[in-house]
Design the sequence.
């Protein structure tokens, strides 16, 4: 019996289909749950918040959906140890909900993914993210190798981690910095960061390590056909590349 | 009729003309008289607005329909030809189902010139609805942009260039449809009239296609309006598209532009997919159509009229954003994000529930939702009610039937034969700094800075995003290796010289681009962007271009399944855009595993040129950079073009091609440089090229600069197994080795060496400054 995973759909979400698809392909029992039919959310074992422009990014990306009633179930579940993965807009929502880095009270964010810098423009570009903590630090990454390098697409206008110096220091010291941007060969420097993100941050986890917020989209580089020049297998439909993060997510849910 | 009338009968021509002008009507005096004569009375104000929209060129194609009849529109790949909101091409079978790719292609030129962000955004919004209403899931968008000179940072042209891209990005990104293909040209001919052409693709199983017409048993069915609350935006939009831009009327023009709401559209699309599912379960044939030109009136009249019915629509049932809107604004205004269903009454409640409750449209945007507004009638009249009274009651075929306003077709001279051998550049010259000048030319330089603002990978189906190959490609059917490729092309430098050949070259280029990734070209769409057809020069260009489109498609076995005509692309002082026939080609791949990118893969491979160099460099970037005048466009020998396509397809199918790139703007040397750049930036590999002296591979057919930078077309192909490749191309005379790939980051041409990093910098910089 595989774990039941809810992929949340807010008004304006746009990445639910491929997110459900990669979850299914790594063996999870995933389905999209829409805002208007979300009463049974608490019955799910884990939650994925996919990309998009929930509530039109009004005020700030993620600010309004963090207060959607669906998030009550997600916050309660996260506090009880359920796994929560937020991608792109989903990551922004998790920060606005205060679940990651989770160093302050719920719905009182201590950090945000905000406007790209130096140019505040939407950018769609291929990136790699590198695991910057011990794999076991976060349950969702526990089955990855140390310093795992995951291909993904950055596609956002608000992906730059911003926080006060004090909170940035807390993020670094508390092992919250789960993923940093890297080059294809694994080296890390400023040129690999597409959005001016503080600490080169591409992903954050919470204290307990059961919530992961990642800005780039591993699910858009998750099958062999997504990277035709770098195919790993013989079946063009095989999950590969970014699918490794979802495989690790599924591994963590194996015994749920 | 309590509704005030628009006096026509007994009014002098002069007075009628000034009354029409005062009311902002584009109907001519003779057209107003024809309406009054057919009605046997003066039209009401609502009626006159309705005819103004329906009889505009935008809706009626009245001065181009007879010309478009020359285009081939049928063939084995055609599932749905022109005539509905979009065409459909048969792309392949999967799990026993025949799948179609829906394609629509339109212009949104006038709005984008006046308010570029909103104009371009609503262009995407409109084309997406055209595809959606065929019952399809929207799987990709593309755009062809023709922009003015953007060199000056404070110019209006640069403002337009940036805002158009912002608008396309803001809309396409939010609805979650990948931007897969497109092109952009910068030319002074677009300083006062930019062109924004948009293409959208959808996926549909053949048996699930929904038509934009009321089905044969639709008498008594309900007309259901879905989407945004109707407001006063976009009033007069269809007519606005069918006149010249006059700067003095900028304020009035702005009022005609619609307001985009991609957030609402995102939800409407998803709700509509759910309705499709519901209808499929019940195997119901219904009608579904996008509201575009002519608003509620235009859409409901065409839906019912094309099914052989009439309609009664009650404007009081329309959700209005503002109290007290005049009936003609409610009826004809072009508020965005609306669609219209024709449904059996027993199904309506379930459909309303999906939109209004399951997807809670009224909570997403004020006044949004789905509501039944009228009935399909047996009597073939179009009736509008407002305040309980009839404000419009006309024969429906008079409103939506074909009207003609045909100008005599000029006798076109046969194009002068091109002598491909005649030289326009004296002698042989060193390449020198010319390479960098061509790579940094505004029509050659990298487009990445522009398209990186577009989400090209949402939906997770993208195989080739922009920049990876000549065409974009996706694998749209979950669990299937079937692929769809797309390219959009046209060249204003060619259009300025020779509209007919420019049209032919646009077709050839789009087909080549799709073939270069290994796809089988399936079919075409066209968008014809021209000046005022009443100017004989522009009309002759339009006629010539349509002739060229027809010839090229027939020669290559292609058909047009959809298209659009945008005339009046000129300002008041008569400056028209260069003739701009823009063509999109859709291709199919049986297995995306066989796809080919343009990045060079390794050193030690052979580089082949499939094609023939010519001295005819007219319209090329080379000619412009060198200041060569008078040269003709290259000769198109279709037998050779077909041979090029066939030999490439065979080699790709046999797995013999490591990389392939079509030769276009900037010629063969530019194509090779782009292949080396892609190796570095996309694969992290250093691959350079040693190119043999052109004299060795042209056999004297062309000078060295013409061979390197001329735009006669063809392909550059990277091959590892030359013996197998030679066998695959045996007997084809225009396939030859021109060089090898090397491990050094240089391109060497004969004795000259060019540093790849320097070339790359020249290629990247120009647009990076415009789109930082």
Sequence:
């Amino acid at each position: 019996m595989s774990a039941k995973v809810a992929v949340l759909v807010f008004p304006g979400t746009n990445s639910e289909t491929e997110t459900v698809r990669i979850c299914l392909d790594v063996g999870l029992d995933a389905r999209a749950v829409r805002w208007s039919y979300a009463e049974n959310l608490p019955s799910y074992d884990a939650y994925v918040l996919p990309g998009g422009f929930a509530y039109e990014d009004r005020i700030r990306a993620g600010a309004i959906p963090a207060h959607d009633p669906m998030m009550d179930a997600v916050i309660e579940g996260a506090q009880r140890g359920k796994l929560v993965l937020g991608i792109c807009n989903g990551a922004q929502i998790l920060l606005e909900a205060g679940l990651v880095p989770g160093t302050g009270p719920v719905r009182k964010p201590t950090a945000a993914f905000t406007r790209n810098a130096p140019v505040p423009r939407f950018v769609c570009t291929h990136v790699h993210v590198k695991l910057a903590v011990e794999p076991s630090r976060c349950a969702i990454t526990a089955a990855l190798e140390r310093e795992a390098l995951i291909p993904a697409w950055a596609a956002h206008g608000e992906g730059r981690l911003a926080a006060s110096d004090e909170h940035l220091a807390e993020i670094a010291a508390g092992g919250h910095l789960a993923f940093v941007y890297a080059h294809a060969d694994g080296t890390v420097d400023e040129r690999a960061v597409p959005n001016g993100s503080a600490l080169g941050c591409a992903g954050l986890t919470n204290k307990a390590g059961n919530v992961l917020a990642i800005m780039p989209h591993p699910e858009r580089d998750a099958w062999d056909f997504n990277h035709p020049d770098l195919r790993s297998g013989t079946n063009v439909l095989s999950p590969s590349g970014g699918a490794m993060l979802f495989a690790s997510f599924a591994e963590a849910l194996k015994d749920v | 009729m309590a509704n005030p009338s628009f006096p026509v009968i007994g009014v002098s021509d002069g007075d009628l003309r000034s009354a029409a002008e005062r009311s902002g009507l584009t109907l001519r005096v003779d057209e107003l008289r024809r309406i009054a004569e057919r009605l046997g009375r003066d039209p009401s104000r609502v009626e006159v607005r309705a005819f103004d929209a329906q009889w505009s060129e935008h809706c009626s194609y009245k001065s181009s329909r007879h010309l478009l009849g020359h285009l081939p529109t049928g063939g084995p790949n055609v599932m749905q030809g022109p005539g509905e909101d979009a065409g459909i091409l048969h792309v392949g079978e999967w799990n026993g189902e025949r799948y179609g790719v829906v394609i629509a292609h339109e212009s949104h030129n006038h709005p984008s010139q006046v308010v570029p962000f909103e104009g371009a955004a609503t262009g995407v919004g409109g084309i997406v609805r055209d595809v959606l209403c065929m019952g399809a899931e929207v799987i990709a968008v593309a755009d062809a942009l023709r922009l003015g000179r953007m060199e000056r940072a404070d110019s209006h042209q640069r403002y337009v260039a940036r805002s158009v891209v912002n608008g396309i990005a803001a809309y396409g990104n939010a609805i979650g449809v990948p931007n897969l293909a497109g092109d952009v040209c910068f030319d002074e001919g677009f300083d006062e009239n930019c062109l924004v052409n948009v293409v959208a693709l959808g996926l549909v199983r053949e048996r699930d296609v929904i038509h934009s017409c009321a089905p044969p048993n639709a008498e008594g069915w309900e007309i259901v309006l879905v989407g945004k609350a109707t407001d006063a935006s976009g009033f007069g939009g269809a007519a606005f598209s069918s006149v010249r831009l006059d700067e003095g009327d900028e304020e009035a023009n702005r009022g005609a532009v619609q307001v985009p709401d991609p957030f609402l559209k995102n939800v409407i699309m998803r709700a509509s997919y759910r309705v499709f599912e519901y209808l499929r379960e019940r195997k119901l044939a219904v009608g579904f159509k996008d509201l575009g030109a002519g608003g509620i009136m235009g859409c409901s009249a065409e839906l019912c009229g094309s099914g052989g019915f009439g309609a009664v629509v009650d404007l009081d049932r329309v959700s209005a954003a503002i109290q007290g809107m005049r009936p003609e604004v409610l009826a004809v205004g072009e508020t965005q994000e609306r669609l219209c269903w024709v449904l059996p009454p027993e199904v309506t409640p379930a459909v309303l529930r999906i939109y209004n409750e399951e997807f809670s449209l009224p909570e997403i945007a004020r006044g949004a939702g789905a509501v039944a507004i009228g009935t399909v009638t047996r009597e073939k009249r179009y009736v509008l009610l407002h305040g309980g009274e009839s404000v419009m009651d006309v024969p429906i075929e008079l409103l939506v039937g074909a009207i003609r306003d045909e100008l005599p077709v000029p006798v076109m001279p046969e194009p002068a034969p091109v002598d491909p051998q005649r030289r326009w550049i004296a002698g042989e010259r060193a390449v020198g700094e010319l390479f960098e000048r061509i790579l940094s030319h505004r029509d050659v330089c990298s487009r990445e800075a522009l398209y990186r603002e577009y989400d090209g990978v949402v939906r997770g189906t993208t195989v080739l995003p922009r920049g990876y190959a000549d065409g974009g490609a996706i694998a749209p059917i979950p669990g299937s290796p079937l692929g769809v490729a797309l390219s959009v092309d046209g060249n204003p430098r060619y259009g300025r010289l020779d509209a007919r050949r420019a049209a032919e070259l646009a077709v050839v280029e789009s087909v080549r681009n799709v073939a270069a990734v290994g796809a089988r070209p399936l079919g075409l769409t066209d968008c014809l962007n021209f000046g005022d057809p009443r100017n004989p020069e522009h009309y002759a260009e339009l006629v010539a271009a349509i002739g060229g489109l027809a010839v090229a498609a027939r020669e290559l076995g292609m058909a047009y399944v959809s298209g659009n005509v945008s005339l009046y692309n000129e300002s008041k002082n008569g400056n028209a855009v260069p003739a701009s026939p823009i063509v999109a080609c859709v291709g199919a791949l049986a297995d995306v595993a066989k796809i080919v990118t343009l990045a060079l893969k390794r050193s030690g491979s052979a580089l082949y040129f499939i094609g023939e160099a010519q001295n005819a460099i007219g319209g090329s970037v080379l000619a412009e950079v060198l200041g060569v005048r008078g040269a003709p466009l290259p000769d198109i020998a279709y037998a050779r073009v077909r041979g090029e396509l066939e030999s490439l397809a065979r080699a790709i199918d046999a797995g013999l091609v490591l990389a392939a790139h079509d030769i276009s703007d900037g010629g063969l040397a530019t194509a090779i440089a782009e292949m080396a750049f892609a190796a570095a930036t996309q694969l992290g590999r250093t691959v350079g090229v040693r190119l043999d002296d052109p004299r060795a591979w042209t056999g004297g057919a062309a000078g060295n600069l013409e061979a390197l930078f001329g735009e006669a077309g063809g392909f550059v192909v990277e091959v590892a197994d030359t013996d197998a490749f030679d066998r695959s191309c045996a007997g084809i005379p225009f396939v030859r080795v021109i060089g090898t790939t090397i491990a050094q980051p240089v391109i060497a041409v004969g004795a000259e060496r060019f540093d790849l990093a320097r070339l790359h910098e020249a290629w990247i910089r120009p647009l990076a400054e415009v789109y930082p």
